[in-house]
Amino acid sequence: MAENPSRALHKISEIYDRIAFAAVGKYNEFESLRVAGVRLADTRGYSYDRKDVTGRGLANAYAQTLGTIFTENPKPFEVEIVVAEVGESAAEDQMYRLTFDGSVADEHGFVAMGGSAEAITAALSQTYTAGLAFPEALQVAVAAMNAGRSSAEPRPTDGDVSDQDATMPDAGSPIPAGQLEVAVLDRTRNRRLFQRITGDRLEEVLNSQK
User: Fold this and answer.
1) Stretch (H or E) spanning 33
2) Long-range contacts, 38-44 (Cβ 8 Å, 24+)
3) DSSP state for residue 169 in the 8-state scheme
């Protein structure tokens, strides 16, 4: 889930059958990484087997790319990304966070990125429990993001997708449903497990726990 008023420029996207990509930072930079990941996954899946395309493999490729840019270019990418893969069971799920210098961390349960990451992580550490159904998990995530808004610094207009297409709500105010980008990897679906939750469906899920 991401705070994003744009309906055209996504922070959360599908990479391959069971794999999703999420990012914060400069849109043009993380979009180029997303496209490269899709191409790598398609090539590997076509040349070998679809099962050979893994979240870990993509995370390693992104780490190498970001590390090379960090060491060889005068300016590193201003991005932070997460690669997530859903397994046959929750025990097989994988989630990796990568920072601008190519550092990669194996995350479990939840991960937060961006300027309010520490506050959101603190809130989630108090409210998140493994095995939550999707509506409950979404409510927990929304509450954590709202808790983190009061600590957020003013956003610079640096090309981040969040600065485009709409005015963001004031820090400390609840995030409207229309400014949430929500997607899920649903292991019960056939092959392509990525699904966006938008419009009436999003409103229904958000209101189901009230």
Assistant:
1) helix 27-47
2) 41/15, 41/16, 42/16
3) P
Residue 91, token pair as written in the block: 């025990």
Burial of 156 (0-12, 13-18, 19+ CB in 10 A): exposed
- Residue among 196, 203, 160 at smallest CA distance from 4: 160
Average pLDDT on 168-189 reads 83
Give yes or no for a contact between 184 and 197, defined as CB atoms under 8 angstroms apart.
yes
So what's the pLDDT on residue 166?
44
CA 78 → CA 29, 33, 41, 106, 175, distances in Å?
7, 12, 23, 20, 24
pLDDT in the model for residue 191 = 81
Set out the domains of the chain in order of their start, with CATH numbers. 2-207 (3.60.20.10)
Q: At 200, which amino acid appears?
A: D
The Cβ of residue 175 has, within 10 Å, a number of other Cβ atoms equal to: 17
Residues 140-156 have a mean pLDDT of 77
pTM over 0.70: yes
What pLDDT sits at residue 158?
46
Length of the chain: 210
* Paired strand residues for 85: 19, 94
Residue-wise pLDDT for 50-105, tens only, equals 999 999 999 999 999 999 999 999 999 999 999 999 999 999 999 999 999 999 99
Burial (Cβ within 10 Å: 0-12, 13-18, ≥19) of residue 123: buried
Contacts of 38 (CB under 8 A, 6+ apart): 15, 16
